[in-house]
Write a structure and sequence with these properties.
21% strand, 353 residues, globular, 2 domains, ten-stranded mixed β-sheet
Length: 353
């Protein structure tokens, strides 16, 4: 089979980690008889430097005509002086909106071989955890009205019932395929938008009697993730809350460099990217962890292309390399084998083929 993949390398370590993810796709293609046709596009700071805007119509067109989009990371201090609508991050928000991607899936699981890298107490880390955060992606405070009046600045949280319902259904369906537990996270004791969120989720729960449903305030959820992440199976929450909680959950795995994500809409087209940022302080040094980008490629194989066996082969390869003691600097500890970005990618590709 032949598949068209849009590749957006982005800024900082983005080109390095995406380069390894692309190599992994090639290895999977060779093993299973697929051809992945790559179509490179610019977004973020590099797009600003090249064309004056963080996201061009040409990039949107390339992505819309692909079977899946693989993204590295965007941003860097050299573009921080720009107004908000011209910053690299605006390109990412714009692409999600242009592709109609409203549900962001961020899995966080602790590999048994990385218990020592987990910041939890050893007796808790040894029990492991496996959860997914479903983050609403195109609404909320990141997209509401904003501005400044004199010395006052404002950002507005806005949600419609329809926006909440569609991401809620994604979360209920996912929970039904996993361990049957869904926790909706909000701030309904204070925010009117969260009260609407809870009302809509309560209407939905009656349609999914096989899913054990609960509500939790976001401050409590942040505490419970640290106290015992095993309590959670699937969490669903708003754009900003999901952004924060998923980074917290990511660090519990040992490093945010391990955390993949998928942004999905109504159809099979999705955007797949590591949760970590562009990390300009280590760009070009062969130090970035490519595993998050590689696992994002595995999610692309499974969720957009329907290639479950191929995705599993990538995930198993990552596990095998970690079990054999290879580590990038972010998860390295004494007694392990320290490798760089390229070598980690080469090792994982070797386990696939």
């Amino acid at each position: 089979m032949r598949y068209d993949i849009a590749v957006i390398k982005g800024d900082g370590v983005g080109p390095e980690v995406v380069g390894q993810a692309v190599n992994i796709l090639a290895a999977a293609g060779q093993k299973f008889g697929h051809v992945f046709e790559l179509h490179e596009a610019l977004m973020g700071g590099c797009a600003i430097d090249a064309a004056g805007v963080p996201l061009s119509d040409a990039t949107i067109d390339i992505c819309k005509n692909s079977d899946g989009v693989l993204l590295g990371a965007v941003g860097g201090a050299q573009w921080d002086f720009l107004p908000g609508h011209l910053r690299p991050e605006a390109g990412l928000l714009g692409l999600r909106a242009a592709l109609g991607l409203y549900a962001n899936l961020r899995p966080a699981a602790l590999h048994p071989s990385l218990i020592g890298a987990c910041p939890l107490r050893p007796e808790l880390a040894e029990k492991g955890f496996d959860l997914v955060i479903v983050r609403e992606l195109t609404g909320g405070i990141y997209f509401g009205e904003r501005g400044r009046v004199g010395e006052t600045a404002f950002d507005t949280e806005v949600y419609s019932a329809g926006e909440i319902e569609r991401v809620g259904r994604v979360a209920f369906e996912l929970a039904g395929k996993r361990n049957g537990r869904l926790c909706s996270v909000d701030k309904a004791n204070v925010l009117e938008s969260s009260r609407l969120w809870r009302e809509v989720m309560h209407r939905l729960r009656d349609e999914y009697p096989g899913v054990e449903y609960s509500d939790m305030l976001v401050d409590n959820a942040a505490m419970q993730l640290i106290r015992d992440p095993r309590w959670f199976d699937v969490l669903v929450t708003s754009n900003m809350f999901g952004d924060i909680l998923s980074d917290e959950a990511g660090m519990l795995t040992g490093s945010i460099g391990l955390l993949a994500s998928a942004s999905l809409g109504a159809g099979p087209l999705g955007l797949y990217e590591p949760v970590h940022g562009s990390a300009p302080d280590i760009a070009g040094q062969d130090r970035a962890n490519p595993i998050a980008a590689i696992l994002s490629a595995a999610m692309l194989l499974r969720l957009s292309l329907g290639l479950d066996e191929e995705a599993l082969s990538v995930e198993n390869a990552v596990t095998s390399v970690l079990e054999n003691g290879y580590r990038t600097a972010d998860i390295w500890s004494g007694g392990c084998k320290l490798v760089g970005t390229r070598e980690m990618g080469r090792l994982i590709a070797g386990w696939i083929t």
